[in-house]
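Problem 12. The chain below contains 385 residues. Write out its predicted structure in token notation.
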Amino acid sequence: MAYPRIDFLYLNEKDMIEAGVLDAAGCIETMRDTLALFGKKDFLLGGPNADEHGLQMNFPQKSDIEGFPLDDGPDRRFMAMPAYLGGRFHIAGQKFYGSNSHNAALGLPRSILMVTLSDVDTGAPKAIMSANLLSAMRTGAMPAMAATYLANKDSEVLSLLGPGVINKCALMCYMEVLPNIKRIKIRGSSSRSKTALAMKEFIEETYPQVKEIVICDSLEEACRDADVVSEAMSVTKENMEEFRLEWFKKGATVFSMGSFLYRKYEDFKNTTMVVDNYGMYQKYLNNFIARGPVDAFGNKREWVIMGIHFVHLVKTGQVQREQVINLCDIVNGKSEGRTSQDEIVMCSIGGMPLEDLSWGYDCYRRAMKKGLGTSLNLWDAPYMK
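Solution.
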């Protein structure tokens, strides 16, 4: 690019698919590279301490202003997630999305996401891309990458809690790294839910090596006897089922990417606890405490993110900080992953914008090589300087 002219690449969803955004094996390796750089601190996130997950705009549950947008359902928010990632990526950018559970009535996904990649030095845009598939794929690839260190190699039973887009992408990635999976259990909102049935059909069509697919009637049924549990549920608090440690077999590996309601925190002391970003869960817990014990309607607040449970145990002196293992340290060879066949491993995957940048960057590079997308002009020269 010859400055001051600035052109950037726009990639719609079709372009992203052609660029390989659904390449499970490739995304897994990109996530490995990303966590390695995270562990080496070759990154920046937003906020004064460069460690914020993002800046979230929430809507009030009530307002005296006529027509003011309200929090009238779960997941009503906007989110901006800036980041810089070094290493082979050396890219800045952000993911931005709006989320509303009522989108389904319009035939839209709950969240609509975009990723922007920017030149680190000038700030000039390099690419703007559709990011629903990108975000889902990087989310699903992270636990699969972690499974290469944490899951037993002979795992045969996979349980999918929440048969939506995230676990569909996670399934595509698990099947790349867990070649012995022969039985898959699915837990949706009911045994006849459309998403559960659609997931079953997808597995039947895509993975003929899977000999048995079971749609479960309860969370307990879905968890029992599973070698690997993949939780990616998005449910309202009143519909949440509480987990029990006794549901998980010896040697189970449990990945949580969504809602993990568990009230007997001390049980986790008997498991191997792993997190993708400990500091992120610290902030979540501090923010949760600052908001007070009840919401605007007097309902008791409860945290439902696995990593917050781990931080709470450290904060209350029930475990040492070293007992909560950083996934990046495992990737970089500083900590061990699974050390025995029988240990139960609990791994919290909260996600970071670093992952959107890295997979977005790799898709952008592929798109450039293939001549995909639409080149757009910002200016030939700025009107004012």
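Discussion. Residues 139-352 form a domain with the Rossmann fold fold (CATH 3.40.50.720). Students who got a different answer should revisit the alignment rule from Section 12.3.
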